[in-house]
Design goal:
single chain; alpha/beta; 3-stranded parallel beta sheet; 3 strands; 12% strand
C-alpha cells in the first residue's frame, strides 16, 4: 500500500476538510514530480474501500496507462477504463476515463460519488 509523504498527507487532509465543509468541486494543484498520481491513488483507494464510485479523467493515453498502473500496483484498486481500445469493466468502483470517451459514453456510466 502507498505511504504518503508528510506534505501529501496534509494535502489529502485539506481536500477531505474542504469536501466535508460542503465543497463540491475541489481542485488540488501540485508541481511536477510531487506525486499527484500517488495522492489520487490514496484518495481513490479510500473511496473504493467505502463502497463509493469515482471517475478519474485524463486527456492523454499515456496518463491513462500511468494512472492505471499506479492505482493497481501501488494501491490495489480495481479499476475500469473508459477509453477507446481498452476493455470496459463497468462494475469497477474506480473508472479511469479518457475525456473524449467519457463525453460520448457518460450516459452509460454509473454516476460517481467523486
Amino acid at each position: 500500500m502507498l505511504t504518503l509523504r508528510p506534505y501529501q498527507s496534509t494535502l489529502i487532509a485539506q481536500v477531505r476538510a474542504a469536501m466535508q465543509a460542503g465543497a463540491r468541486r475541489v481542485l488540488l494543484t501540485s508541481p511536477t514530480g510531487s506525486g499527484k498520481t500517488s495522492l489520487i491513488a490514496h484518495l481513490l483507494a479510500s473511496v473504493a474501500a467505502n463502497g463509493k464510485r469515482a471517475w478519474f479523467c485524463c486527456h492523454r493515453r499515456e496518463l491513462i496507462d500511468q494512472s492505471v498502473r499506479t492505482f493497481v500496483e501501488s494501491a490495489d484498486i480495481h479499476v475500469g477504463i473508459v477509453a477507446a481500445g481498452y476493455p470496459h469493466h463497468p462494475l469497477a468502483p474506480v473508472q479511469v476515463c479518457s475525456v473524449p470517451s467519457l463525453a460520448k459514453r457518460a450516459h452509460h456510466q454509473a454516476l460517481p460519488d467523486l
